[in-house]
Design brief:
The chain is an all-alpha fold. It is built from 10 helices and no strands. The longest helix has 26 residues, at 6-31. It starts with 5 loop residues before the first helix and ends in an 8-residue tail after the last helix.
């Protein structure tokens, strides 16, 4: 049994996972998803093909994991002030996070989203990541409002609305010609619609 501290092992595993995912995304953007192999991903990530398979079921899962901002958003939401209304906290987290992204990261995120749009084999894994994120947000909200039941109606509605807003904002932005730094502004507009009950906007 290894004497390596549990925390250090966890960090090393996370770094390995990120390295594999980043390699999968980089190769997909350079060569096209259909033209890359697990062996190529392993070579670029400096791991064995078996290690790649230990972390991801397929290259599609790795590609989707590489570009997702959902884990970061959820981690920030979990640390938001507990007295803040859940939807207000999520709005603040999303706006601040998107506004903090560097231009190169925004460019990569847009290219990642466009890659998913062009490859239907990636969509199932992306939708699974949204479902997982929604479940995590629901649990956090349920805990904050003092119920142990993660199926609480209010918690479920907040989680579904917040994750749907993130999904629609990202996809709309990726398909548009909007500048990269407009992502945070679009998120603000999306949460405005939620807060006003989806009243018809002026055109």
């Amino acid at each position: 049994m290894s004497d390596e501290p549990v925390g250090l092992r966890s960090i090393k595993k996370q770094l390995t996972r990120e390295s594999i995912a980043d390699a999968a995304l980089r190769l997909s953007l350079e060569k096209g998803l259909s033209h890359i192999t697990i062996d190529e991903i392993a070579h670029l990530a400096f791991v064995s093909p078996r290690t790649v398979s230990n972390y991801f079921s397929c290259k599609e899962e790795a590609v989707v994991a590489a570009g997702s901002t959902l884990p970061d958003l959820i981690a920030l939401f979990a640390r938001a002030p507990s007295k803040q209304a859940p939807m207000a906290a999520m709005r603040q987290v999303v706006n601040h996070f998107f506004a903090s992204l560097a231009e190169d990261k925004l460019d990569q995120t847009r290219r990642w989203l466009q890659l998913i749009e062009a490859n239907h084999s990636l969509r199932a894994y992306q939708m699974a990541s949204y479902d997982e994120a929604e479940a995590e947000v629901r649990s956090i909200v349920a805990e904050r409002i003092g119920t142990e039941d993660a199926s609480d109606l209010y918690a479920g509605l907040v989680a579904a609305a917040a994750i749907a807003a993130v999904k629609v904002v990202l996809e709309t932005w990726a398909r548009s010609q909007e500048p990269p730094n407009r992502l945070a502004d679009l998120a603000g507009v999306a949460f405005d619609h939620i807060e006003t009950g989806f009243t018809l906007p002026d055109r």
